[in-house]
Each structure stands twice: as C-alpha cells, then as structure tokens.
Amino acid sequence: MHIRTASAAEMLALWGENPDHPSPTARFNCENIESGSATLFVWDRSGVLVGELYLFRSLSDPDFADGKKRAYFCALRIRKNLRGQGLGTALMEHVIAQAAREGFTELTIGVEYSEEANIRLYRRLGFTEPVKDCVFDPCAMDENMEPEAHTGFQLLLKRL
Predict the structure, then answer these.
(1) pLDDT of residue 1
(2) 87-101 and 116-124 are packed helices; what angle lies between their axes, rounded to 10 degrees?
(3) What does 111-160 look like in DSSP terms, one character per residue?
(4) 61: buried, middle or exposed (CB in 10 Å: 19+, 13-18, 0-12)?
(5) d(Cα 160, Cα 142) in Å, to the nearest integer?
(6) Cα–Cα distances in Å, from 13 out to 43, 49, 75, 151?
(7) Domains of the chain, residue spans
(8) In tens digits, what is the pLDDT along the chain, a chain of 160 residues?
(9) CA atoms within 13 A on the CB side of 96
(10) Measured at the alpha carbon of residue 65, what is the angle toward residues 63 and 109, in degrees to the nearest 5?
(11) Helix axes 8-15, 24-35, angle to 10 degrees
(12) H-helix segments, 36-131
C-alpha cells in the first residue's frame, strides 16, 4: 500500500458517483481538485483506494482555509475493515508534511462532537486549538452550490 494523489475522476469512482451527473458536493470537490485549490490524497492498495483525505487550500470561509497560511483537511475516511491499523494517522501525517512543504503554517479540521475516536486522533496529531463551532460545511454543497447546513461540528486548528 502507498499514499498518492488522485484525480477528480478517481474521486467520482471512489464515491460511486455518475460522472455525467455528480452530486453537488462531488462536483464541488472535482472543481477544486481540477483547479488545484484542493488535492485528494489516497491510500492505494494495489489499485483499490482504501482511504482518502482532502487538502483544501482556499475555501469561501477563511477560518477553514485562506489560501495563504491556513489550509483545511476534509473527509478523512479509511475503510472500516482497515481501521485501527494506523492508516488514518499515516495519511494525516503525510498530508501535514505536504501542507508544510507548500508553506502553510496552520491547518484546520472539522469534527463532529460525537466522533470521539476522531477527536482523540486529531488531538494526538496536534489539532488542539478550537477555532469555532460550525453549522455550515464549506465542503458539502446543496443543490444551489451553497454550503450545506449541518447539525454542528467543531473546527480545530494545528499550528505548524
């Protein structure tokens, strides 16, 4: 297994999206990947993608990513049968190093209040400073391509 970047087309396949009619969120991610505003990093297991993490460099809400010093981590996912093996930690460490190489000095990540395992992981990796409580997700789009309302999550900050 190895970590690599993936294309917008690979993201659509990973999500099971129709390339001709992707969901608003998938379309948003594709546009950002294709423009270079975001990069999709994946765990590749002999051609099968078993984990993903997005690095957004700029978003509509600069508290998440401002395009200069702050970038946002979005959608850390590891296949359920492979969790607990350090893949999420390794993927995050890889992307943290990439963000640092690009000159970012702050990273943010959103986490739902009920995701205790993710909160522990993120804190262990240095995402310890609360930025704000959020009710809109700037990476999840509604049918009008506006940030979708969310039940609530916390935005955490890591300084590099």
Answers:
(1) 83
(2) 50
(3) EETT-HHHHHHHHHTT--EEEEEEEEEEEEE-TTSSEEEEEEEEEEEEE-
(4) middle
(5) 33
(6) 14, 10, 16, 28
(7) 2-159
(8) 899 999 999 999 999 999 999 999 999 999 999 999 999 999 998 988 889 999 999 999 999 999 999 999 999 999 989 888 999 999 999 999 999 999 999 999 999 999 998 999 999 999 999 999 999 999 999 999 999 999 999 999 999 9
(9) 19
(10) 80
(11) 160
(12) 87-101, 116-124
Map tokens 């969310």 to a residue.
150
* 94: amino acid identity, one letter: H
pLDDT digits 0-9 by tens, 20-59: 999 999 999 999 999 999 999 999 989 888 899 999 999 9
CA 93-160-72 angle, to 5 degrees, is 65
Residue 120 CB: number of other CB atoms within 10 A? 10
The single residue listed with the structure tokens 């809109």 is: 136
CATH of domain 2-159: 3.40.630.30
Q: Do 157 and 127 touch, CB atoms closer than 8 A?
A: yes
